[in-house]
Amino acid sequence: MRRALNGFCPDCGQGKLFKGRVALVEACDHCGLDFTRYSAGDGPATLLIFVYGALIVPLAFLLENLLAPPLWVHAVVWGLVMLAATLLSLRVIKAMIVALQYRFQTPES
Ligand SMILES: [Zn+2]
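Above: query sequence and zinc ion SMILES. Below: predicted holo structure tokens.
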């Protein structure tokens, strides 16, 4: 898990897990582990939508009750907060799901 969270192959800990920000490499360039078998799919994004939605909606209600800003302020503030939070944590959640799939050997199909 630690290796994947640091962006490295969960098997050998040497090869890169990601190409770019969140895209997985097809295989480890050190040990050859096939990452196409461990695709996280839409799981990380779906998980983050549920978690951040549950956190942000109460904050939006709180802001509305305290300051009652115009609706466009809510759209801008919460849209940016949701986008930033998702982009910052998507890689971590994706690495975690791939590491769990590797650990418990549950590749796609
Ligand atoms: Zn490897």
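Residues 21 and 88 are 10 Å apart (CA to CA).
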